[in-house]
Amino acid sequence: MSGKIFIKNADGSDVTRADGSALASPTELPLYSATVASGVDLTCGTFGVEPYSGGGVRACNERFLCGALDTSFERCMQAIDCMMNREMTTLTSPDSASKVATFMQQMIPHHENAINAARIVLKQVPMADINAAMEDGGLTDILYGIINTQSYQIHKFRNYLKPLNLLLSFGEASSAHPRVDMRAYINIVAVATAAMMI
After folding, report:
1. Which pLDDT does position 26 carry in this prediction?
2. Does residue 130 fall inside a structural domain?
3. In what residue span(s) does the DUF305 domain sit (predicted)?
């Protein structure tokens, strides 16, 4: 989900300052490269999960779901839980002096897992079943609420951590198995969520 927002004056003309003068940077900036899902992520409706799926370069030996893992739904859920587990244990500063930073470092993969879980349900479960789960489309509202709210919160966490050099990453991604960065997706959702709150 992505979009471009144009802000115009009430009469449809280009937006200006309150005094009518032109904005400092009226030229359009280039957009980020769109994330294109493929393989496991296309099947699951997720972002960045493929390396954590069965046989992936970051796949876990631990099982996070009971059962045979013989459906795409189960394999998708296993992969996102593996991703969260790996990222929570490797993307947190050791012995950080900032409990706030540690909380945020832990919450980013936790929130990404919730977002991916909601997206898996929306992709893998028939909409009739989702709608039947709660009255008045309640589960649908919850799923989209998780995606929007937690994406916005991740955006806020990253903005706090980055200037402190505490936004950790795995480093250079392998060209054979690039780590899809959810930041572009999350930033767009955060902007859209903020616009809905106004």
Report:
1. 59
2. yes
3. 81-160
